[in-house]
Amino acid sequence: GGGAYGAAKAGGAFDLVRFVQQPQVLARIVSAVFALIVFACLVGDGYTSQPEYPRLFCVFNHNEDACRYGIGIGILAFLACIFFFMVDVYFPQISNTTDRKYLVLADLGFSGLWTFLWFIGFCFLTNQWSWTKAEDVYLGADSARAAITFSFFSIFSWGLLLTFAY
């Protein structure tokens, strides 16, 4: 008997320790860290140049779309984690069941979409990395591999958020 979307539990004092120990909050923090790693790896070392051609290019097979995709979903995932983290903070204070329903459905929909987009991102980055010539990458190979790895981990962290929202 928690009521619709936990509405019967609305109100009360905020307990930080109890809040941080909630599984969806931990999963959201992990997802934000993974998104930040992917974004930082691609922005920091995702672009390189050759000595004879000083123009910057993406390390993933010179495909600018690969870097843009990884950076884009990384930034949006990080911002969404911050937004839904704030929703998690204020959620117990919301007594209107309609508002609670829409927030839960937004979390469910966004988590499902981002699970899918991380899967696409992992496949896209992995494919482009497999076609990348070793001589084209002087620096940034480790960052490219880290972006691929944490894109893979993000599939599961966002899938976990999807499960918690469901």
UniProtKB/TrEMBL annotation:
Signal peptide from the UniProt entry: none
Topological type in the membrane: Multi-pass membrane protein
Protein keywords: Membrane, Transmembrane, Transmembrane helix
Domain MARVEL: 19-166
Cellular component, GO, one term: neuromuscular junction
Subcellular location: Membrane
Major place of residence: membrane
Membrane-spanning residues: 25-49, 69-91, 103-127, 147-165
Family: Belongs to the synaptogyrin family.
Entry protein name: SNG2 protein
Species of the source: Rhipidura dahli
Taxon lineage: Eukaryota, Metazoa, Chordata, Craniata, Vertebrata
